Automatic annotation (TrEMBL):
<keyword id="KW-0408">Iron</keyword>
<keyword id="KW-0411">Iron-sulfur</keyword>
<dbReference type="InterPro" id="IPR058240">
    <property type="entry name" value="rSAM_sf"/>
</dbReference>
<dbReference type="GO" id="GO:0016740">
    <property type="term" value="F:transferase activity"/>
</dbReference>
<keyword id="KW-0949">S-adenosyl-L-methionine</keyword>
<dbReference type="GO" id="GO:0044272">
    <property type="term" value="P:sulfur compound biosynthetic process"/>
</dbReference>
<dbReference type="InterPro" id="IPR013785">
    <property type="entry name" value="Aldolase_TIM"/>
</dbReference>
<dbReference type="InterPro" id="IPR034422">
    <property type="entry name" value="HydE/PylB-like"/>
</dbReference>
<keyword id="KW-0004">4Fe-4S</keyword>
<dbReference type="InterPro" id="IPR007197">
    <property type="entry name" value="rSAM"/>
</dbReference>
<feature type="binding site">
    <location>
        <position position="72"/>
    </location>
    <ligand>
        <name>[4Fe-4S] cluster</name>
    </ligand>
</feature>
<feature type="binding site">
    <location>
        <position position="76"/>
    </location>
    <ligand>
        <name>[4Fe-4S] cluster</name>
    </ligand>
</feature>
<feature type="binding site">
    <location>
        <position position="79"/>
    </location>
    <ligand>
        <name>[4Fe-4S] cluster</name>
    </ligand>
</feature>
<dbReference type="Pfam" id="PF04055">
    <property type="entry name" value="Radical_SAM"/>
</dbReference>
<dbReference type="InterPro" id="IPR024021">
    <property type="entry name" value="FeFe-hyd_HydE_rSAM"/>
</dbReference>
<dbReference type="GO" id="GO:0046872">
    <property type="term" value="F:metal ion binding"/>
</dbReference>
<dbReference type="InterPro" id="IPR010722">
    <property type="entry name" value="BATS_dom"/>
</dbReference>
Length: 377
């Protein structure tokens, strides 16, 4: 008698094949990302946790994030700090304050991420290069890691020369999310000047400078489906991403997408019952396909599930968390989405969450992505 595989045996079969071949095809990824009984998801989560332990170990790495300006020339339709959101009070920290905050950060953490809205002027890049230089210099005397203290930047699309200037100033890593690899969706959520190909070129330029290259996507873009997400995961592998940050798209007031946000429609689009579970599955599958990358447990996960967002992300394959060290008075103004500024990310909270997830932390090592370290050999 002919028997058809049950859903359960299909998941098992896919995980089994993955263990043999170390890769997944698009159909397999779509199945793993789809809504299934909890026991089946558990097979996926156990596999990705094991792959994490085997390839990047048990440590979760910490980097402080300083959001130093919310001034932005871009007008992304989802982002709370988009140029045309007049509800937001704009700020830019003075150079001395960014450097001083970074010095505080380096006493506790092995790296600092400087993030801002997008400003492409040469004056902005010159000032940022100066900030990076000063931070690297001060790390020699203030950080236990000295020259191994890492500076990570996330300030959007720049020219190849500007990236080079920042690299030469001492920047080690660069994060630039592609947001989605579906060109139609990309156009739907960005202003006319932005192009997906341009962003891809930027990522290649960053890689050519031998910086650790980070990217990521938004999950829950209106109209996005599982096939889009599967292509996103394959894209991370194709470009050899060293760092991957993914999170749910959350509504921000004063933005076209946030003001018209319809959670039920988003869930229908991605064939999901629960956005949080879909992001967890994305982290798991991304880990299976990119075993040696650093994958962050994002703040947006904690907003979506304040009980255990970060903990569950770590349990299924994330190995980086980013405590926010933006000065208290400006934290609320870095309004990417609703609820962001309320998330707790002090060292004690993060240590407890890492422990709860059954992982360890080590503040004495830079936590470079294994993928990048192996490329240096
Ligand atoms: N300007 C830089 C850039 O474009 O890469 C860095 C800052 S940008 C605000 C940082 C990230 O915030 C974006 O890559 C985006 O994925 C995320 N973000 C913005 N608005 C969001 C929202 N409404 N929900 C979730 N994430 C959001």
């Amino acid at each position: 008698m002919l028997t058809y595989p049950t859903q359960s045996s299909l998941t098992e079969e896919i995980i089994h094949n993955y263990k043999m071949n170390k890769t997944l095809d698009t159909a397999e990824i779509c199945h793993l990302l789809s809504h299934k009984p909890k026991e089946e998801d558990q097979l996926l989560f156990t596999a990705s946790r094991d792959v994490t332990t085997a390839n990047v170990g048990e440590m979760v790495h910490l980097r402080a994030i300083i959001e130093f300006s919310n001034v932005c020339e871009a007008d992304c339709l989802y982002c709370g700090i988009r140029k045309s959101n007049d509800n937001v009070e704009r700020f830019t920290l003075p150079t001395e304050q960014i450097v001083q905050t970074a010095v505080e950060a380096m006493k506790q953490y092995p790296g600092v991420l400087l993030q801002s809205g997008e400003v492409q002027s040469q004056a902005f890049v010159n000032r940022l290069a100066e900030v990076v230089k000063q931070i690297k210099q001060l790390a020699l005397t203030n950080s236990p890691l000295k020259e191994n203290f890492r500076v990570i930047l996330s300030v959007g699309e720049l020219s190849q020369n500007q990236y080079k200037q920042l690299r030469e100033a001492g920047a080690d890593r660069y994060l630039l999310r592609i947001e989605t690899t579906n060109e139609r969706l990309f156009k739907n959520i960005h202003d006319r000047q932005s192009s997906m190909n341009e962003r891809m070129t930027c990522l290649q330029n960053i890689k050519d400078l031998n910086m650790h290259v980070g990217t990521g996507v938004l999950i829950g873009i209106p109209g996005q489906n599982l096939f889009d997400l599967a292509n996103d995961v394959k894209f991370f592998k194709k470009i050899g991403a060293d760092m991957i940050g993914m999170g749910p798209l959350l509504p921000a007031k004063g933005t076209p997408i946030g003001d018209n946000y319809n959670a039920q429609q988003v869930l229908k689009d991605i064939h999901s019952e629960n956005l949080f579970d879909t992001v967890k599955r994305m982290i798991s599958v991304t880990r299976l396909m990119n075993p040696k990358a650093n994958i962050s447990a994002t703040t947006a996960m904690e907003v979506l599930n304040p009980e255990s967002g970060r903990v569950e992300a770590i349990q299924v394959g994330s190995n980086v968390v980013m405590p926010v060290m933006t000065p208290i008075g400006d934290k609320k103004k870095y309004y990417l989405y609703e609820g962001k500024s309320n998330v707790k990310s002090g060292l004690d909270v993060l240590k407890a969450q890492i422990t709860q997830a059954g992982r360890k932390y080590d503040l004495t090592k830079p936590g470079d992505p294994v993928s990048w370290v192996e490329r240096q050999k």
